Amino acid sequence: xxxxxxxxxxxxxxxxxxxxxxxxxxxxxxxxxxxxxxxxxxxxxxxxxxxxxxxxxxxxxxxxxxxxxxxxxxxxxxxxxxxxxxxxxxxxxxxxxxxxxxxxxxxxxxxxxxxxxxxxxxxxxxxxxxx
Length: 131
Known about the structure:
- This protein is mostly helical.
- It has two domains: 11-55; 76-130.
- It is built from four helices and two strands, in the order H-H-E-E-H-H.
- It has helices at residues 14-28, 35-55, 75-99, 103-130; strands at 61-66, 69-74.
- A two-stranded antiparallel ribbon has the order 1-2.
- Strand 1 and strand 2 form a beta hairpin.
- Helix 3 runs antiparallel to helix 4 (103-130).
- It is elongated and about 75 Å long.
- It starts with 13 loop residues before the first helix and ends with a helix.
């Protein structure tokens, strides 16, 4: 037996609700009798993800929320993303350094490259410490 439940949605997040209803209608070809079930599934998924992050210690995970989406990434995974970014910055600075003729600008780029290299080493040590 189903039970009607009412909630209010902030007008800034109304678009998410409309997208959700549209998703349910596309999936089932109707909203009647299935919208509530899909909403409960979505809420259960949210709670499961939140509890998973809590059990695995919030300090080792980052929960990113944006407009109804949840993404959980471990700090190790985020560290590898940052590592790849630093590698790209270092390579870009090295290529730029070779192309620039002005010695003052080259020195600034060398400093950026050196800082990126130091950051890479520090980050690699921290990643190794996580293992």
